[in-house]
Amino acid sequence: MKNRLRVLRAERAWSQQDLAERLGVSRQSVNAIETGRYDPSLPLAFRIADVFGLKIEDVFANPSREDAQ
Amino acid sequence: MKNRLRVLRAERAWSQQDLAERLGVSRQSVNAIETGRYDPSLPLAFRIADVFGLKIEDVFANPSREDAQ
DNA sequence: GCGCGATGTCAAGCGTGCGTTACATTTCGT
DNA sequence: ACGAAATGTAACGCACGCTTGACATCGCGC
To answer: Which range of residues forms the domain containing residue A43?
Structure first.
């Protein structure tokens, strides 16, 4: 599933480590999600949207509508 | 994580089996999510929001804000 | 009373989300 | 040139999302 983590993180000048600490997960988890190696759990997706002040739909692309929009 | 699956399903008069088929998962998965035994994956959460024509935030309660609203 | 749809739950198995540890590479300040 | 920060990736272990198959209960029409 595509996501805008890298861009959102860059806008705030946060390292993967910074973001990981704000989320309460490991740096490797942030990296894996960012590089698309796996999708976050739903609770983690909520926390991610939270730290950026966005909705989940604004951070992650709906996989069933990847070509839309 | 709390969710409004049971209510949304009742509004449409769908059985758990009906919803499961629309989502492409087993009836047991729908039941487990509905009864709160576990949270759906993020891709499945997107599909669930889709079949109800809602946003993820309108179906699932943000666990870090459960008392809010 | 009987059968049937709907629901709840269990067990076993598989793939994956996330942790820890570790190592390599790149980039940057001094 | 050197050290440190940032990033990418790998191996291993554990917990969980989801499957199939099965069984029990409940409410309903007949």
So the answer is: 5-55
